[in-house]
Amino acid sequence: MRWIWIDRILELKRGAKLVALKNISAAEDVLHDHFAPAPGSAESAPQPPRPLMPHSLIIEGMAQTAGILVGHAGDFKEKVILAKIGKAVFDVAVQPRPGFTIRHSAEMVRYDASGASTSGVTELIDPATGEARKLADIELMFSHIDSNRSGLKFPKENFVFTEQFMHLIRNVEKLED
Questions:
Q1: What's this model's pTM, rounded to 2 decimal places?
Q2: What is the CATH number of the domain that holds 146?
């Protein structure tokens, strides 16, 4: 099963920037295996742990956001894959829990025939206040696998930019009209 870790694209500037949202829902199965430490102290009654979105899936959400930015810059002619996580620094005091929204903002740093690099900030939006707090700084590198130097051949169908991803792009393009 292929999971998409972004729900909506808010802003898309070709070859420059893409902003996407992910709403964290308690209905997501993956949250039931990842918990924040239960709040409380020795004086108070213990409280149950609270589910949270794991950092690895937050990085994947940024990779999908930045990957769409890279693919869109080349009109989706190349298959784009994540090649390297250059940096992923999280603020551990900010806990992404159900009900909150994650906002990924990715910017293009470099783009050429072999691939691209991006830099991004992930923020967590509190549903009660609307306040956004920085959750992570994430730098990623992508490869255009059709232009690889090894000479490997890949299937003609684009297995990276599936119909689900293209649906997100079509929706943002409708907003720009």
A1: 0.85
A2: 3.10.129.10
